[in-house]
Fold this sequence. Notes:
Structural class: alpha+beta
Order of helices and strands: HHHHHHHHHHHHHHHEEEEEEE
Strand order of the largest sheet: 3-2-5-6
Distance between the termini: 216 Å
Number of helices: 15
Helix content: 55-70%
Amino acid sequence: MQGGKTANGDKISGWVWVALAVLMLLALAVVFVLPRLVQEYELPLVPRTESAPIVASTTPSASEGPRISPFDEAQRSRQRREAQDALASLLERQQALDDVAVTQWAQSDYEAAVAAARRGDEFYRNTEFVQAAQAYQESDLALSRLQERAPQVLDDLISDGEAAIVDQNSALALERFTLALRLGPDSARAQQGLARAQTLDEVENLIARGENLQQEGDLQVAQQQFEQAAALDGAHERAAALVTQNRQMIADATYTNVMSEGFALLQQGQADEAIAAFQRAQRIKPGSDEATEAISQTREEITLARIADLQAQAEAFETNEEWEQAVTAYDAVLALDSNLVFALEGKDYSARRLQLDRLLAVNIDQPMRLSDQAAYNEAQEVYRIGRDLEADLLAEQGQVGERLAQQLDAMEELLQQMQIPLEVTLRSDNATQITVYQVAELGTFSETTLMLTPGRYVAVGTRPGYRDVREEFVVGFGNDLNSLTIRCNEEVAAVNRP
């Protein structure tokens, strides 16, 4: 039995040594591993406290018995890891929020989240790992919500900055856009807003100087100020509007000056130069009704002046009985306005007078044509028309043109002369047969006398064995023809007969 007890006792002793080895390993883990894990995950803003290392005895004391079972120790280890994971997550979020200056846009909420983390630290130090994990998770959730708010905060900051620029508050704009760039370093709106905020005071000073110059009438220099302001801040709506507005004011002022120049030239009688000025004004302000109307009126005045001048010329030509020139003048008037009654009537009258003048002139200048009976009859009709016109002119105007009067007198004398026969003596050799065309066959004679009206005549002589003769002669019209000899003198050779 003693041997049996010894064997059984050895078995018990072996299990005790195994248990002691496990406990020793756990004690070493608590002493060497756990402090390093706590140091790695503990909040940096919570000061660490010195604590005595945990030393596990190799054997439990007789009075306390076993302190914790392996299963419970494993549970505590799992709870500790959960707490440490929650701590790691919230530390990462905290760093991210610190990078975007969270205390400048959500200080109270951030401090509340940090306070939850500190409570977790207290639980952790007291090895209350479940409560520590819950506190850390609460802090992590709060920090997560702050991260979710960041995009909206960024938009709000940018909007506030843009509103500050509109309100010309450069300090506030700089503050908002600087903070916005902490939240969104890549935000184009924030970058542009900061650049605008940095030049805001200079832009506003340029605008103020430009507006003062504008009020003083120095539009060109004011334009330079406005353009400089717009160049510094291309998104400044007021600067851009002032550039456009002032440019229009310059154009309006230039337009007004050029229009005034045009009207001054018009008053000085320089119509063509005035039109050129109005056309320049039209190029400055395309579609201007005023410039278009001024050009139209000036051209109308030029046309009216030209018409009046041509009318005066035509009337002067009529007075001087220069009918061809009068017709030309009236044609020029009708080319400007084809509906002018005075020009239509004037041209018709002048054209008829020109025709009468030419018919009278051709008869006077070529009186021998009147030897033809048809031409003579026509000349008589022309003369009658001329005398009727003369009577009408005397009745209406009390006078008649000198040229017409002279032409009619000359025509009257010519027509009378054409009716008075003149004596012409014809001489021959009493062997030649004489014929005067359109007068008579006179036969042979030594001398005969004819009474012939003024005109052109042809006398022909024939004689057997002699060459015929032909004589043309004019009676009257200033020709001193009293006698004419007609005889065949040139003998021709006889014709041989078989």
